[in-house]
Every structure is written in structure tokens, then in C-alpha cells.
Amino acid sequence: MPVSKAHASWHGDIPSGSGEFTAGDSITGGVTYKSRFEGGPGSNPEQLIGAAHATCFSMALAGTLASAGFPAESIETAASVTLRPVDGAPTITKIDLVTKGRVPGAGPDEFREFAESAKANCPVSRALAGVPDVTLQATLDAG
């Protein structure tokens, strides 16, 4: 499997400095103190973690469903990543995953079961195992 690469740089002190990042061939962005800790314009690492988690989870769910004979027409997942101070240090304390799938032949209980499995087993979920609270809301779209 290929090694995924990213790069980041930071210029200046934390309150007034700024940074840039690249991931892969096409993802770029800028980050500042305000974009990370005050909800200001720009990007932050937690958004990238959320995007990675939502993508990985969606792919894992689609793969699990297909292996069980339920190929998905679509899986859409949103991730919200909460950053809070813990013992004086900014810490990711919660990730909320909200997924909706259009999966012919699958029932709502089956879909939730497959979604829980994907949440537990996708590589990004395993990498984020130290996050104390990861929630999942899984809804089957009847179409």
C-alpha cells in the first residue's frame, strides 16, 4: 500500500502567526490561531481529521455492505470534531459521525449494525481510539 504524505509549515508566534498545509496532490489550506481556536475563517487540523474520519468510515461501510450482498447506492457521512481544553491542553474530546445510506435490500437495523462495525474497524477510527467519545447516528434512506 502507498504511504500517504502531507506537509505543513508555521510562521511566527501562535497568536499572530499563520500556517499552510498540503495533503496529497490537491488539498491545500491555511490555518491561524483564530481559525483553529476561535471559529474564524480558514482551516484547522480538526477539520482534516473530520474529513479523514468521514471518508474512511464511508468507504469501510460501503465495503462491509457490499461484502454482505448489499451494495450501497450512496453513503454520506458528516463528522463533527470537538476540541476542548483538558488539563490546560487543547484536546479532541468528541467526534460525532452522522451517516445516511441508500442501500437497496438492507433494513434499518442491519444498516445500523454494519455502520457500528465500520465505526469500530475503519483505519482512521482505530487511529483515533484515544478520543473518549465517538458517537454514530446511522440512518437508512428509504429513497
Proportion of residues in extended strands: 35-45%
Helix content: 25-40%
Sheet having the most strands: 3 strands, antiparallel
User: Which stretches are low in confidence, meaning pLDDT under 50 for 5 or more residues running?
Assistant: none
Number of helices: 4
CATH architecture of the largest domain: 2-Layer Sandwich
Defining key terms:
GMP Synthetase, Chain A, domain 3, 2 domains, 3-stranded antiparallel beta sheet, 143 residues
SSE topology:
Blueprint: E1 6-11, E2 18-23, E3 27-32, H1 33-37, H2 45-67, E4 74-86, E5 89-102, H3 108-121, H4 123-127, E6 133-140
Parallel strand pairs: 5-6
Antiparallel strand pairs: 1-2, 2-3, 4-5
Helix pairs in contact: 2-3
Notes on the structure:
By secondary structure, this protein is of the alpha+beta class. It has helices at 33-37, 45-67, 108-121, 123-127; strands at residues 6-11, 18-23, 27-32, 74-86, 89-102, 133-140. The chain has a three-stranded antiparallel sheet with strand order 1-2-3. Strand 4 and strand 5 (89-102) form a beta hairpin. The longest helix is centred in the middle third of the chain and has 23 residues, at 45-67.
